[in-house]
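Q: What changes when aspartic acid is included in the input?
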Amino acid sequence: MKNANKYILLAAIAGIIIGLVIKKFPDSLILQYVSDISILAGQIFITTLKMILVPLVFFSIVNGISNLASSNKAGTIWRSTLLYFAGTMFFAVFIAMIAMNLFKPGIGVSIDAWQLNEVVTSEALSFKDFIYQFILGLFENPFASLANGKILPLIIFSILIGIALNEKNKALNSARDFFKSFYEIIFKIVNWIMYIAPFGIFGLLVNMVVSQNITIFSQVGIFMLIVIGVILFHGIIFLPTLLFIFNRVNILSLWKGGRVSFISAFATSSSSATLPITLKASQNNFGASKDVSNFVLPIGATMNMDGTAMYEAAAALFIANLVGLDLGLSQQFVLFFIAMIASIGAPGIPSAGMVTMAMVLQVLGLPLEALGILIPMDRLLDTFRTTVNVEGDLVGTLIIDKLVKD
Ligand code: ASP
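A: The predicted holo structure follows.
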């Protein structure tokens, strides 16, 4: 995935240029071939992503939850960790969605080249009926949801298997190993797909430029500014305020003690790669106990991703605006929920949020072709969201450590 990143930007630029040339000379036969091949390349990329999405969601959730079994931590640490993760992520997604609803980037552009899929909720329903249907829709024969790519019931089933595997029973070891190995296999395939990503992105962008006017690119700029703005708000205002309230540690001390891991997160775009640095910073610079940091930080690096959750919610609203779909209250409720799950499901590696973004789009019935404009800008946005992901883990460790010591 990492190697593909540098080619993706080149492919995106090439796609836009070739798209503009084709638009200028619509009668050229050669350019018509190029256009046809581009459409095919884009579609192959999208279809392979659709192929891997369902098994990826299934194995990553089962594996992630069954891994929690290895911990013997006391109830207080457990409970406060989960409460902190859920609470901060809740706030993060809320802020991102408010900002997107206020500024509405992408409204009025309307990309006709993208197909809308079957939308998960009907706006004709009252909120009460919607909640009723939503809850019933969470449970389904898992084989039917696997076959039909129904993500929500699949997530619920995966969570149940993960919880069942948490039981400390030796007989379950081989099942846990099975899910772990399969997760590795699926991830290998994701990496292969990422090798063809530059061709896919090229094709999708050629197709988009040919069939679209260029105003979309200024909207992309506004969207990026909003995402960076809300992520900075979370990282500079919200998390430091929380730390100050609980620990009386101010933002300057947070920066001084945590800057090595923040800079590493920014540079690597990987919470997991930054984990050893964050562990050291929490223990050496802030005096956090090994017991708490060795528990909270590794789980946080894979599950607690405020920046990713903010991005996923904002990106889905942006794409909905681009296709002219006005997501109502019930659909935004689903988005709220699914953006959090998508960020929990994303591993702490570069651009992981992009793979789970496909899941968010699928659940809302939004076109996966939209990844063609999201992926090229991801390198930059990933740096910001990873930094806030890591900051959230560090702040959580310090708060929980304080709670346990008091
Ligand atoms: N790169 C992020 C991380 O490692 C995950 C993502 O949002 O892509 O925290």
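Observations recorded in class: Residues 372 and 404 are 46 Å apart (CA to CA).
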